[in-house]
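Input set for joint prediction.
Command: fold jointly, output tokens.
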Amino acid sequence: MKGAYQKAYDESIKNPEQFWSKAAEDIHWIKKPAKVLDDSNKPFYRWFVGGEINTCYNAIDRHIEAGRGDQTAIIYDSPVTNTSKQISYRELLEQVSKCAGAIQELGVKKGDRVIIYMPMIPEAVIAMLACARIGAIHSVVFGGFAPHELAIRIDDAKPHIIISASNGIEGQKIIEYKPLLDKAIELAKHKPQKCIIYQREQVKASLISNRDIDWNEVVPKAKPADCVPVASTDPLYILYTSGTTGMPKGVVRDNGGHAVALRWSMNNIYDINPGEVFWAASDVGWVVGHSYIVYAPLITGATTIVYEGKPVGTPDPGAFWRVISTHKVKSLFTAPTAFRAIKKEDPSGQFLKKYDISCFKRLFLAGERLDPDTYHWASDMLKVPVIDHWWQTETGWAIAANCAGLEELPIKPGSPTKPVPGYQVDILDNDGKPLPANTEGIVAIKLPLPPGTLPTLWQNDEKFKESYTDPFPGYYFTGDGGYKDEDGYLYIMGRVDDVINVAGHRLSTGAMEEVIATHPDVAECAVIGAADDFKGQLPLGFVVLKAGATKDEKTIVADLVKMVRDQIGAVAVFKTAMVVKRLPKTRSGKILRSTMRKIADGQDYSIPSTIDDPAILGEIEEACRSIGYAKKN
Ligand code: COA
Ligand code: AMP
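tokens >
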């Protein structure tokens, strides 16, 4: 007999339009869609065409109309400022509609872009929802990115205004945002008309007259704005994510498909119902924050937590257990690296013993591979199901998961379980032929992707095709490698491109190489992601110097570390580089990065038949060993 998961999965593949049109009944439509799936312009698929919707209405207003006005929508828990406060749906409506009114008064209209560069404070969520309310397209930029990265996004999104705050707080450190914002605007060719700055207690940012406006002077006094109807296919947001070059990809999210998919996922994947407390310990700057701090819990009428803190050090490794027990969290979603951080400081779970977390039902992990050690440690400690699930900024929600709300399947450590309804996942060889079970290859998803996934890249259909649908016609190329076992369980083994994952943060080695290559003494370079027990991966640089380099090697490496930190951000954690005589390349000149990665990780590697000079591999191995890499297990 088929279980609930298999039934739903089969239905979603056999009759996708019927499946998603049923899911769409949980969303409020201003105008019902005329067509569920438009596939007339392949490989561009559009969901719920002809429909009109307002995402903010679905996330706030409708819950108040249904009697949830006094329920807490957002809990702001900030150990770094010693604050805990609750915002009800009614209060959220008031604040969001005033913020929407304030940005409308600054001339922001439907379709205009608004960049949001903010720390983890409720105002970040309010700003996002305010944009959604008036049909403006937000683009949130993670606070850990440096001005150069912000400038790239400003030039691509061309925002009418930018919303920021005076500072963020990283553990014990106060990070002043305003100088970073000013620098980014100086670097960017496109200049926003206005900046709204939320002044926090820790830092009073100096405002530039005629451009900068104090949030507290405009938002509380603004005339509340009503919801503006938008087409289901209109963009709700752009979220830039690392690709293989220094130019990030502007992932577009539509309104209709996004609302439907996220609402469906809350019940069926996370088993969260209206009124329950769900906590995604991430940052609004990442896709997890967009989907599971902001939109999915609020569209569901649940309570979400905005946590301004870390898993450790704010103040101790019991921080997560405190939040769970204080706010009666049913499920937590975070990255495995956060659990490795807790395990490192409190391996025997002494801090866990201080809290009653009987309310806690499941832990969901994603963002990087969940190594079996961390899986076992977390399940032994918490004694609840630990659910690994796999997804990407591009998809916006899980591609593979143990769909707890449908039916909990047996867990296999190391696997994010099976494809979620809507996703047909295949393992392909380099020629695009499906591979049999237990054979590692490229992970691809048959088109069309389900609702909520990226319809295209911001103003760049060509790049969308080139990156995702041209590599294997009829498929979406995920960039991940992996395999399926004989039971159909997926195993995601890591990226097959130049994207790396450092502490659950997606970064581009190509972007780091572009920065390093600008050093006057560097002739050429390669950056790879080397395995790291704590952060999953860490970038490792190899540089070849120009003949007659003016500085000594140590100074050059220190320069490179500083350059990457200043231009990409501390979050890149680029701390190690080595000078080598040559880089291993194919005869056509392609740098053999994947072989270098295997060498650095101490794995066995075969000498590629296309290599120009195999002797270079020995030199690379030696260089890696000299700084503690290339250790054989
Ligand atoms: N603003 C400014 N700086 C930031 C930042 C932000 N929002 N986020 C991180 N940084 C800085 C850190 O302060 C650190 O700076 P430092 O070099 O001066 O110490 C640097 O970037 C590296 O940060 P990180 O790699 O995050 O290391 P960490 O030691 O500060 O924290 C973890 C480690 C594991 C606790 C943290 O990375 C974490 O919680 N990761 C989970 C990520 C996540 O939620 N991903 C989303 C998918 S679920
Ligand atoms: P991001 O776009 O930041 O969400 O990063 C997406 C990438 O993170 C994926 O392409 C994977 O490489 C990796 N990733 C996310 N979740 C998992 C997981 N559960 N297991 C393995 N890798 C994952």
